Amino acid sequence: MKKLMVLLIVAFAVSDVYAAQKPKISMKKAKAIALKKVPGGKIESAELENEGGKLIYSFDIKGTAGITEVNVDAMNGKVVAVQNESPAKEAAEKKAEQKKP
Hints:
disordered N terminus; 3 helices
């Protein structure tokens, strides 16, 4: 009986963690916010990720200056990072993503 109680407590704690990690803004809204940082750009990739305990939308946007990565906080819609990526960095990221299971 004690094991069942412990399992139930752990299950509720885990579900609370995941419930707290649901984005409060939609991907569509986050895309619009990110595109404002790269006028005329086109989104090449978009994903929701947990980075350092913070839930963010990450967008790679192709513009006139190459690829710009824009990160938008999934909880409040604020832009938390804007970074221009060199072709070498893009290639390294693609290679790393291919190694992921």
